[in-house]
Amino acid sequence: MNILEMHEVHTFIAGFHILEGVTLTAEHGKLTILLGRNGSGKTTTIKTIMGLTPAGSGEILFQGKAIQKMHDFEIPWLGISLVPEGRDVFSQLTVEENLLIAVRKGKNITKQRLDYIVNIFPPMKDLFKKKGRNLSGGEKQMVAVARALVNDDELLLIDEPTKGLAPIMVESMRLALVEIKKNATIILVEQNFEFASSIADDFLIMEHGKIACGGKIGDLINNEEMQHRYLGV
Amino acid sequence: MTSQLFVNILLSALSLGVIYFLLSSGFALVFSLLRVSNFSHGSLIMWGAYLGVYLVKALSNFTLGLVVSAVVIGILLALVEFFLFRRLYGGNPLFELLLTFGLIYILDEAVKLIWGAAMITVDKPLFLQGTVMIYGEPFAVLRLYIFGLGAFICAALYFLLNKTKLGLIITAGIENKEMVRALGININKVFTFVCWLGGFLAGIAGFVLAFFTGLSPEMGTNQLLNVLVIVVVGGLGSFMGAAIAAIIMGLAEAFLGFYLPELAILSSFIVMFIVLGIKPSGLLGEE
Question: Which residues from A are below 8 Å from B235, CB to CB?
Fold first, then answer.
């Protein structure tokens, strides 16, 4: 069953045609990796799903419901969370406040949810009172992912979580995503093919604002010609 | 200088700083979140003064008149945000300049039509008249009242911005509006609320100012330069920076007025010159 579908989606930013008819599907309960060279439209695809760069035309279905005309602030309420490329942890707020601001219903994160987050990212328990501006790159990435977990959403859109991280942090992130994918569907934008191929179920490759090809990750791992052609691996 | 005189000047300086805080806080709050330089802030201050004085008489209740007038000025700015500012976000700043200058003309002329262009003196209510002795020196009750009012508003704003979820959203929105929207928060509603609050603060500031300057259509725009200097010295986008800058301005004006009276009129520019010379982004402004 598909949790998300995009049909012929076109997105324009400042007059530039960025997405040139994206058509894709993401299966429920799977981790789908979105690959492609720089500028191929991966981040814009994620932002278009979230309504942050609204689709100019085409259709986006989340659990069968058309969402392309909804306001950006309405889309998360359907059960979609974003971990943006730049992490975007609020520097003036503490880690605890960064999580609190993301809670959609009620005023506090449930104890059960907090335990789940700390179980995935054990170092988080010592960071709650630290301001966002005082976190390292790896800590910021942890907080950005943790913030997306506070609402127990069905779909997580995660944009380049390993960008700029030390190898040890990349491995921590890999283990965290393996744990998270047990309870959520994930669409992951990633440049690091080795990292991506170790955790993904399905893949999609973007080129020039379109989906060039897709399938099971095993097919891509076994196809060096495709890796070389689309990813330069 | 005797210690009594020093304390008297210090208290005067602080109450002047509180008045500057009240005058500039609404502008700073709106600018910090919306990045809109609302040059009509001075006219809102003036409207707060006229309406406040009118309502205190009409309702025969000082506190109720003050609060109702500030709420109405808040609603006025919220409506301006909803119908006008919202169309300009992310656009050419020149349009914002033209819009807010246009609002100055409309608001100023409306006051002249309703209350006339002549200056009107404002009598202090009985409970704000007279002086109290502090450290052996007389100190005006009105200034003490303003000091208390400013401290209460500052504490309330601090609580709102730092201890509530709305405050977290405002702080986060100042830094990254897109991420706030991506968390499922309707930032436009927050913008409207912040404008209401900015207008509310302008309303209170105008009412307080009326006791010192009387009522005149120019009373608000005359303060606009001070407001801009305070916001720049505090650091563009920093609400707390503006609060600290306002107190520094009050101290500078009162003490320069005592030691070098001929320079008192330039005190705000002297402070600006020194602060920006040391830290070009202002006291709490981001580099």
Answer: none
Q: How many folded domains does chain A comprise?
A: 1
ipTM: 0.92
- pLDDT band at residue B287 using 50, 70 and 90 as cut-offs: low
Calculate mean pLDDT across residues B138-164. 89
Q: Cβ contacts (< 8 Å) between B175 and chain A: which residues? A: 90-92
First-residue to last-residue Cα distance in chain B: 40
pLDDT band at A155; cut points 50, 70, 90: very high
Select from A74, A76, A100 the Cβ nearest to the Cβ of B168.
A100
d(CA A161, CA A149): 14
- CA-based torsion, B193, A76, A199, A204: positive or negative: negative
pLDDT at B217 over 90: yes
Dist. CA A43–CA A213, nearest whole Å: 17
Euclidean distance between CA atoms A155 and A168, whole angstroms: 26
Which of A92, A101, A107 is facing B183, going by the closest CB pair?
A101
Say if residues B199 and B44 touch (Cβ distance below 8 Å): yes
- Residue B144 structure tokens: 């003490």
The pLDDT tens digits for B75-86 are 999 999 999 998
Nearest Cα to B119, choosing from B223, B22, B212, B56? B212
Q: What is the CATH number of the domain that holds A193?
A: 3.40.50.300
CA–CA min distance A92, chain B (Å) = 7
Which residue range is the domain that position A135 belongs to? Answer: 2-231
Work out the end-to-end distance of chain A between its first and last CA atoms, rounded to an integer number of angstroms. 31
What pLDDT, on a 0 to 100 scale, did the predictor assign at position B232?
94
Answer whether 0.95 is exceeded by the pTM: no
Question: A98: which 2 tokens?
Answer: 């960064």
Decide if B172 and A73 are in contact by the 8 Å CB cutoff.
no
Structural domains of chain B ordered from first start: 3-278 (1.10.3470)
Interface of B with A (CB under 8 A): 165, 168-169, 171-172, 174-176, 178-187
How far apart, in Å, are the Cα atoms of B167 and each of A93, B14, B105, B190? 10, 27, 33, 10
In Å, how far is A175's CA from the nearest CA of chain B? 25
Sign, Cα dihedral of B269, B270, B271, B276? positive
